[in-house]
Design a protein that fits this description.
Largest sheet: 5 strands, antiparallel
Distance between the termini: 44 Å
Strand order of the largest sheet: 2-1-9-8-7
Low-confidence stretches: 2-37, 290-334, 408-413
Mean pLDDT: 79
Radius of gyration: 20 Å
Number of helices: 14
Length: 413
C-alpha cells in the first residue's frame, strides 16, 4: 500500500465561525452555498481516495495534534487483529480492573471486578466512546497493563506507516505525549477498511443497548451525509472536536479527517464540504441529504409533539431535576460529563429526533435511553457530554428540560 502522496490542493484557512453553523443549515436542506473555513490554529484536515491513497485536499496534514477518542480507532485495530489471530473471541469475558473502572467519562459505568464481553466493549467504544471499555479491552489484549498496550499500539502504528503517532493509553484521554497527525489517521482509517472489511462494519453501528439503555452513536454524519459508513468522533479541550469519516459514492470511497474544530457543528459541516469537494474533483455528482438529515432540521426551540400523538413529554421520577436553569454545584463542573433530558417519548424515532435537535443547539452528543414508566416502554431523549454551564444555559430557555448531574447518570447505569 502506498502510504503517502503529494498534496494536490490546499484549503483556505480562515473565516468567521458563524459560517460553520450556516453551512450546516444549508447542507441539511440540500442547498448550495460557499463554505467558510475553520479558523482555529489547532485545525488540520485531509481527504484521500481510499483505493489509491491519493490526497484530494489537505490543510496542515502533518502537524502534530492530540487524537482524543480517535485513539480508539487504533485500540479497535488491535482488537480486530487479536480476533483474527484467535488470541481473543468476541464472546470472551473482559475483566474490569479498578484502573479501567476509574476512567473518567464518557464511559459505560463499569465497576471493578465486573465483566463484559469483547463485543460489548467494542460496541461501547464505537457508540458511546466509552473510556472504561477501551481501557479494559486494552488490558485484556496486553495481559493486564494499559501502559504495555499503549506501547504495542505505538509499535503497530509505526509498522503501518503512522510515523508521527505516539499512543499513551487505549482511550484517548489527555496525555501531552499522545500525538498524531491528520495524515496518520487517514492511513489508519484506510487500513481499518482494507485489512478488516467485515469488522469495519462495526463503525456504522447506529445504537447499542446496554443495561436497558439505548446508546446512540456519536457520529452525526452516519445519518446526515449520504454514503457515510463510519468511522469515529473525538473531543477533549486540548484537541478540539475531531472526526474521521469514510463515505462511499458510485463505488468510490473517500476518507476524511478533521482535527481541532471549534464545535461539533463546525466539525461536521467542514467534513461534509470536504467530502463533497473530493467527489467533485473525481467528477462524481453530489447526492441530496438523507431522509433523516432532512428531518433533523436545526432549531432553537423544543418540539414537544413529533408527528401525531406518538410522543409524550412526561415527568420522569427516576431522573433528578434541578429546575430550569438550576445551579447544581460540582467541583467538576467544567468537565463535559453533564447531561440534559428534553423529553420522554413512546417512539424511539421521535426521541432520537428530539435528541439530535437538542444536541445541535448545545454542542453535545445525542443519546436515547430505553426505559419503562407506568407499564409502558418509553425512550428518553437526552444530550450528554455537556459542561454544567451549557446544560444550565439550555434548560434556562426551554420549558421541557431536565438537568442530569454526573453522579445521577452514573447511578442510573
Amino acid at each position: 500500500m502506498q502510504q503517502r502522496r503529494q498534496t494536490e490542493g490546499n484549503q483556505p484557512k480562515t473565516a468567521p465561525r458563524v459560517w460553520a453553523f450556516y453551512l450546516t443549515l444549508t447542507f441539511l436542506f440540500g442547498c448550495q452555498v460557499a463554505v467558510a473555513q475553520v479558523s482555529s490554529p489547532r485545525f488540520s484536515s485531509i481527504v484521500i481516495e481510499a483505493s489509491t491513497g491519493k490526497v484530494l485536499s489537505a490543510d496542515n496534514p502533518d502537524a502534530e495534534r492530540y487524537p482524543a477518542s480517535l485513539t480508539k480507532m487504533m485500540t479497535l485495530y488491535m482488537a480486530f487483529e487479536a480476533l483474527r489471530d484467535h488470541r481473543i473471541t468476541s464472546d470472551e469475558l473482559v475483566p474490569v480492573s479498578p484502573h479501567a473502572a476509574s476512567q473518567v467519562p464518557t464511559k459505560l459505568g463499569l465497576t471493578p471486578g465486573s465483566r463484559i464481553t469483547v463485543e460489548q466493549a467494542m460496541l461501547g467504544m464505537v457508540t458511546r466512546s466509552a473510556n472504561d471499555a477501551a481501557c479494559a479491552l486494552g488490558e485484556l489484549i496486553a495481559g493486564g497493563s494499559e501502559n504495555q498496550f499503549a506501547a504495542m499500539m505505538t509499535l503497530r502504528a509505526h509498522a503501518l506507516g503512522m510515523t508521527h503517532t505516539v499512543f499513551r493509553n487505549a482511550s484517548g484521554l489527555p496525555d501531552p505525549a499522545q500525538i498524531t497527525t491528520a495524515d496518520d489517521l487517514a492511513l489508519l482509517a484506510r487500513h481499518l477498511v482494507e485489512d478488516f472489511p467485515d469488522q469495519y462494519r462495526l463503525f456504522s453501528t447506529p445504537s447499542f443497548f446496554w443495561r436497558g439503555q439505548m446508546i446512540a452513536n456519536h457520529d452525526n454524519l452516519l445519518k446526515s451525509y449520504p454514503g457515510a459508513d463510519g468511522i469515529k468522533t473525538g473531543y477533549t479541550d486540548a484537541a478540539g472536536h475531531n472526526l474521521v469519516t469514510s463515505a462511499v459514492r458510485d463505488n468510490v470511497r473517500l476518507i476524511g479527517v478533521v482535527l481541532g474544530a471549534d464545535s461539533n457543528l463546525q466539525r461536521d459541516a467542514r467534513m461534509a464540504q470536504m467530502l463533497d469537494d473530493g467527489y467533485s474533483q473525481l467528477n462524481i455528482a453530489p447526492l441530496p441529504p438523507t431522509v433523516i438529515a432532512r428531518a433533523y432540521r436545526p432549531s432553537h426551540r423544543f418540539i414537544g409533539l413529533v408527528g401525531n400523538a406518538d410522543a409524550a413529554t412526561l415527568a420522569d421520577p427516576s431522573v433528578r431535576s434541578y429546575g430550569s436553569g438550576g445551579d447544581w454545584q460540582s467541583s467538576e463542573g467544567s468537565i463535559r460529563d453533564w447531561s440534559i433530558q428534553v423529553g420522554s417519548y413512546t417512539s424511539s424515532r421521535s426521541a432520537e429526533r428530539a435528541a439530535f435537535q437538542a444536541a445541535r443547539d448545545t454542542d453535545g452528543d445525542p443519546h436515547v435511553e430505553r426505559t419503562g414508566y407506568r407499564g409502558r416502554i418509553l425512550y428518553r431523549a437526552q444530550v450528554i457530554s455537556l459542561r454544567r454551564a451549557d446544560a444550565n444555559a439550555y434548560c434556562r430557555h426551554h420549558t421541557v428540560c431536565t438537568i442530569i448531574a454526573p453522579l445521577d447518570r452514573l447511578a442510573s447505569r
